[in-house]
Write a structure and sequence with these properties.
Number of domains: 2
Structural class: mainly beta
Strand order of the largest sheet: 1-36-33-32
Number of helices: 7
Distance between the termini: 26 Å
Largest sheet: 4 strands, antiparallel
Helix content: under 10%
Strand content: 35-45%
Shape: globular
Number of strands: 36
Length: about 525
């Protein structure tokens, strides 16, 4: 694996965190089998909390249609449901540099009379003080498997005891709801939106009983007293467009709450409201038709305010290639929205729109000039810089049936770049970029911290101790490798989710050595 360049050779140093400022806090998913997806993070009472999902790649194999990979990157057990896939919350204490398992999903009696994990993922976290909270509490939204009883929202006052404060599925009476996409705070209230439930009958052979990124209740819900489980709808369903299948994300900017949708037909939409008056609130459309890129911008995955504008990052589901709907592959973009609803294309494909010709202000095309960055995934401001993370699917080329691709596509994507291994060596692993002004961007890492199996950086979180970074790494505990023309599975020393921390005081960090790996394992 190549080491990281300190900066682009053709640009000046723009300050902020560099690769050398990041040190690894945890790897191999805290030594928990199939702990491979860091879903959520929160800073609560002086500690870092991380919510996980387990066995993500194994259960992706149960989707319809299943991924076309041969061999499959990791071994598939005969009965995936026999695995221990209980979601976990891990807690990092800076003073001792130690991790502890704060919470693990309980086993409950499921819909079909079987014992199952109540949840398999902790998708979102927020620290919030509602009407009934005597102090700020940690709220967590969950992902429930099809065989379980439905998703709930958990509450903790101490980071140890987590108690459900909603009925399964928020009591909406919709069979098959499986999760809540987010928990976000605006003007003294907390917001979420459920997903799943489109299929009226639960299929116990499926891991998640839902069409991906669909919802039977694509509505923004609000609460000022989540401890009492009091939620109300504050938007119309689908914002009036039947092709909006999910409320993907919400965030606060310029005294408004902004909401983004997922739309495979015509592309995402962004709406905003002041959050005042009777519910449902009055919402105004800000952007539509995927910023006039259409279905190649299916969803806005994340939004974050920075220096007087709102930045939105986009993507196509399933890593940038929606095979079910035959959309893509294509990489994500960055859109910048101003308070007056005008907008810029910051990263992406130049195009003519009703608002004029849009050329990327950064000079970077889709995916930050990387075709394999299917998602531009998370953004946060930390110490006067905006940081942006990606999901890079290039390592999957090792297992993809590229011999079935059209010759022109194979030549463009693979042969022109020197072949699969050259691509993985150069681009394998998620990216992390930074900017101080929104237009000039520098890479912090383009190789997942020298690990091509870190395919995504799913979470970023500014904290008092630095910028926390959490990865998606489903290539564990074993991974398929090809030696002497034969495929076989071997132990992967860099498989499983990883947590990194960036701070200017970490001035001499280098790629991980074997002794570093052993030390981090002891700290879990």
């Amino acid at each position: 694996m190549t080491t990281e360049p300190e900066n682009n050779q053709n640009s000046k140093d723009l300050g902020g965190l560099h690769r050398k400022h990041f040190r690894c806090l945890s790897l191999n998913g805290w030594e928990q089998t199939h702990s491979d997806y860091l879903y959520s993070m929160a800073w609560f009472e002086g500690k870092l909390y991380c919510g996980t999902m387990r066995g993500s790649l194994i259960f992706i194999n149960l989707r319809t249609p299943p991924p076309q990979m041969k061999p499959f990157p990791i071994p598939i057990p005969e009965d995936p449901f026999a695995l221990d896939i209980r979601a976990q919350i891990w807690c990092y204490t800076p003073e001792t540099d130690r991790w502890d398992l704060a919470y693990q999903a309980p086993i409950v009696m499921g819909r079909f009379g079987q014992e199952v994990p109540r949840e398999v993922g902790y998708r979102g976290m927020a620290v919030f003080q509602g009407k009934s909270d005597r102090k700020p509490a940690l709220y967590v939204c969950t992902l429930s498997p099809a065989r379980s009883t439905g998703p709930v929202i958990l509450r903790s006052e101490d980071g140890r005891e987590f108690v459900p404060v909603t009925d399964p599925g928020m009591g909406l009476g919709l069979v098959g709801l499986n999760s809540f996409r987010f928990l976000e705070v605006f003007n003294g209230k907390i917001y979420t939106s459920p997903i799943g439930g489109v299929q009226k009958k639960v299929d116990q052979s499926k891991f998640i009983n839902s069409v991906v990124n669909s919802s039977a209740s694509p509505i923004v819900y609000e609460s000022d007293d989540p401890a009492k489980g009091k939620w109300r709808p504050v938007s119309t369903s689908k914002f009036g467009d039947e092709n909006n299948t999910v409320v993907f994300f919400v965030t606060a900017f310029n005294n408004h709450l902004y909401a983004s949708t997922f739309n495979v037909v015509s592309g995402f939409q962004i709406w905003k409201t002041r959050g005042e008056g009777d519910a449902p609130y009055e919402w105004k459309n800000v952007l539509r038709l995927g910023a006039y890129r259409g279905k190649f911008n299916q969803g806005v995955i994340w939004m974050h305010p920075f220096k007087g504008a709102l930045y939105a990052c986009t993507g196509i589901q399933d890593g940038g290639y929606d095979r079910k709907n035959k959309i893509g592959p294509a990489a994500g973009e960055v859109i910048r929205i101003y308070p007056d609803d005008s907008w810029d294309l910051v990263v992406g494909t130049a195009r003519l729109t009703p608002h004029g010709l849009k050329i990327p202000t950064s000079g970077l095309s889709q995916g930050l000039d990387n075709y394999f960055n299917g998602y531009l995934w998370q953004m946060y401001e930390y110490e006067d810089h905006l940081y942006l993370s990606t999901m890079d699917w290039s390592v999957y080329l090792r297992y993809a049936p590229t011999d079935r691709w059209a010759a022109a596509i194979r030549n463009l994507v693979i042969n022109a770049q020197g072949g699969v291994e050259e691509i993985v060596n150069k681009e394998g692993g998620a990216d992390l970029w930074r900017t101080q002004d929104g237009d000039h961007w520098e890479p912090v890492t383009k190789t997942g911290f020298e690990n091509p199996y870190n395919v995504g950086i799913r979470k970023l979180l500014p904290t008092p101790i630095g910028l926390a970074v959490g990865t998606v790494n489903p290539f564990s505990p074993k991974v398929a490798v090809k030696e002497n023309g034969e495929w076989h599975y071997i132990e992967n020393p860099r498989g499983g989710t990883e947590v990194w921390l960036g701070h200017l005081s970490h001035a001499t960090q280098q790629p991980l050595r074997d002794e570093d790996v052993q030390r981090l394992r002891r700290n879990a």
